Structures are given as C-alpha cells and as structure tokens.
Amino acid sequence: MNTDITIANETPSVPAFADSHTFELAQRMARALCASDLVPQQFRGEKGLANTLIALELAQRTGASPLAVMQNLYVVQGKPTWSAQFIIAALNACGRFTPLRFVLEGTGDNATCYAWAEDRASGERLEGPTVSMQMAQAEGWSGKPGSKWKTMPALMLRYRAATFFGRLYAPDLLLGMQTVEEARDIEVDADGNVTAVTTRGVSGLKARLAQGGTKE
Fold first, then answer.
1. Tens digit of pLDDT for each residue in 43-57?
2. Higher pLDDT, 59 or 153
3. Buried b vs exposed e over 138-147: b needs ≥16 C-beta within 10 Å?
4. DSSP the chain
C-alpha cells in the first residue's frame, strides 16, 4: 500500500485567511503554485487561484505540504474529501502515534479489520473500531456497480479502518471531512438513489451539475 505522501512536521506559518496581510502573502504563494504543471488541473491558472487558496488553508490546518493537499483533495457532491492514502500518511507523520498497523482476520464475508498504533506520549496501544465485510454489506457499501469492495476487499477494509482510527483519535487531522472512499460509498442522487459517481475537483463538480446533478 503506497502512502508515500509528504506531510510537514511543522505547520506552515501562513494561514491564508488570518488577516489581510497573510491573505495577500497567500495569494502570491497561490499564484506560484497555479503556474505549475505539477498540480491538478483544477488548481491551474487564474481559474484555479481560489481553489489553491483553499488548499493552502487546508495545508496550514493539517500541517501537510500544499502539493500533498492538492494531489489528495477531491470534491464529491460539492463537499471536499480526502483520499484514504492521505489520511494514513497524515496519521503516520503527525508524530503522535507509531506507524499505523492493521489486523486483518477471517476471509470472504467474514473478513474483519481494525487499525492500531501506540500513543507515543503514553505508550498506550490504541485500537480503532473494527470494520467487517458484513458491515460493508449491511451499509450497502459493497452493493453498487463498480464497487471496489467487490474487487479489492482487503484494501478497502484497511482504508476504512484507518479512517475510523483517525476520526476517533485524531479528528483535527481530518477536519471533519470524509474520505473520497466513504463519500463514494454513501453518495445518493437527487431522487435518493445510491450512485457510484465520484467527481474530482471543481471541474468534475461542474460537469456533474451540467448533467442535472445537485451539490447537496
């Protein structure tokens, strides 16, 4: 599982919206990032300036590099979401815990998984809630066409277990945001029907709205 995502050990010193001075400084930083070909399309050029400013604010709050935020920030139904890989990397790099580990037990429909790590300050073993394939079936996560729960259940169990661990022990890192995997599992259309559509970035959101979708 690749979680090689750069997370800064120290929080960047420029919160984008703290005051007019830092806002102007953040705009200069954002323009430099917008000119790069290495950032996703929705952050490039003048049209991407506002998105980049928001990414800088999220980077400041999470202690992550702006590029890591841009590469792992998705929009689903008008709401920002993280990739599960980003959550795992943030937990591993925050310094509060030993690297996250997973306990996968059982097979098939009886498979379960939980994430654990040690609290570096106290040495206490911290265990996250257990996720199971039965839970995935009961919640309807695995029932949609194209669901990764059908083709990569072991990976999805780990992703969800890591998210549950982070939400329980480090909610400040998640900023109350879902992962894109969670949002995909629970997404519904305007008629209340579960869908498998996930859009990335503002451009994807606009495409979805053009097709008759709604933001909420």
1. 888 888 888 888 888
2. 153
3. eeebbebeeb
4. ------B-SS--S--TTSSHHHHHHHHHHHHHHHT-TTS-GGGSTGGGHHHHHHHHHHHHHHTB-HHHHHHHEEEETTEEEE-HHHHHHHHHHSSSBSPPEEEEES-GGG-EEEEEEEBTTT--EEEPPPEEHHHHHHTTTT-STT-HHHH-HHHHHHHHHHHHHHHHH-HHHHTTPPBHHHHHHH-B-TTS-B------HHHHHHHHHHTT----
Say how far apart CA 211 and CA 132 lie, in whole Å.
35
187 CB neighbour count, 10 Å cutoff: 17
Domain positions in the chain are: 20-76, 86-175
User: Tokens standing for 145?
Assistant: 């066409």
**Cα 148 to chain center, whole Å?**
16
Amino acid identity of residue 195, one-letter, is T
Cβ atoms of residues 114 and 131 within 8 Å: yes
- How confident is the model over 31-44, as pLDDT tens digits? 999 999 888 888 88
pTM (predicted TM-score): 0.68
